[in-house]
Design the sequence.
């Protein structure tokens, strides 16, 4: 809508007045011409020229989006509201990410809450507030998509030289004498179920916690242990190695265990308890039922540890001080170590 100008009644003497039209762009694409007045005297006034209509400045054929469509686009691009989750006893980032179906898993959850969690993603405490699925949170990065791999071209079959019909045939194979022997068929691959002894679940439903060998035996004496001896066995496992439950049972402890760092304790049907220490990541929570061979976390070097490995115990009770020989127990369940 063009602006309405205010003007005064003209006086008797002649006044010159010029107008310079300044086009001002308005919302929706219309332009308004605002006069810039220049007068020869302090009391100059004149009859203003008629301002151009708003539609005269609109380029012909310029499309304008309806207001409803523009509002719909704005609404579709508005970021979704983030959810705040309060950490409970036994929680870990991987379990929280899985329970809330977060894209990017625990790594994205940790990146979104790096400032609140700190440098160690395994150390979260009850009462800590985490932001779930926060767009633009500190450290958040959209997961990168790997470029699609082009399928490799199928090898062209080699042309075989035509057999000489006059060549004498081999009486055993029927092929012409001097011809190259047919390639032997490739041996059939063994099924994964057959597997090797390491990592396989026995008939009793038990398995080794990791595939690495033992680095420190049970009851090895030393002043580094408060009891005067090693209460479990140490398995060789680099940081991030998958740790499995040795048998079916119920998780009775999952979290920080003092000198054991991040630990998991599982009660089995025979009344024995298996303990897994120094984990870098937990994948289960208290009260959860697990099966033999199920992943319960990742190995690491948390707590009192000189380097990445898995500390493993078998106990008659859930707590420290009730240890028995863990290797003898696993072997009694048919596990080869």
Sequence:
């Amino acid at each position: 809508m063009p602006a309405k100008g205010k003007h005064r009644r003209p006086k008797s003497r002649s006044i010159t007045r010029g107008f310079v039209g300044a086009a001002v762009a308005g919302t929706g694409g219309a332009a308004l011409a605002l006069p810039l007045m220049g007068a020869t005297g302090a009391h100059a006034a004149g009859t203003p020229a008629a301002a151009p209509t708003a539609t005269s400045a609109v380029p012909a054929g310029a499309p304008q989006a309806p207001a409803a469509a523009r509002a719909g686009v704005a609404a579709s691009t508005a970021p979704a509201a983030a959810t705040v989750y309060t950490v409970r006893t036994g929680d870990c980032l991987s379990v929280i990410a899985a329970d809330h179906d977060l894209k990017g898993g625990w790594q994205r959850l940790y990146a979104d809450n790096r400032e609140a969690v700190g440098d160690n993603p395994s150390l979260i405490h009850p009462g800590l507030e985490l932001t779930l699925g926060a767009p633009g949170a500190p450290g958040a990065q959209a997961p990168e998509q790997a470029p699609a791999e082009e399928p490799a071209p199928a090898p062209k079959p080699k042309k075989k030289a035509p057999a000489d019909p006059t060549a004498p045939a081999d009486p055993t194979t029927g092929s012409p004498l001097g011809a190259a022997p047919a390639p032997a068929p490739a041996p059939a691959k063994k099924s994964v179920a057959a597997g090797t002894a390491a990592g396989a679940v026995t008939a009793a439903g038990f398995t080794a916690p990791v595939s690495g060998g033992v680095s420190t035996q049970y009851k090895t004496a030393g002043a580094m242990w408060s009891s005067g001896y090693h209460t479990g066995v140490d398995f060789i496992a680099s940081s991030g190695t998958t740790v499995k439950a040795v048998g079916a049972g119920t998780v009775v402890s999952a979290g920080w265990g003092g000198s054991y760092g991040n630990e998991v304790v599982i009660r089995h049907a025979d009344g024995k308890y298996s303990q897994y220490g120094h984990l870098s990541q937990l994948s289960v929570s208290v009260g959860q039922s697990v099966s033999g061979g199920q992943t319960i976390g990742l190995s690491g070097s948390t707590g009192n540890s000189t380097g990445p490995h898995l500390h493993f115990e078998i106990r008659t009770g859930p707590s420290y001080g009730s240890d028995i020989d863990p290797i003898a127990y696993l072997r009694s369940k048919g596990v080869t170590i």
Notes: The longest strand covers residues 273-282. The domain at 83-132 is CATH 3.10.350.10 (Membrane-bound Lytic Murein Transglycosylase D; Chain A).
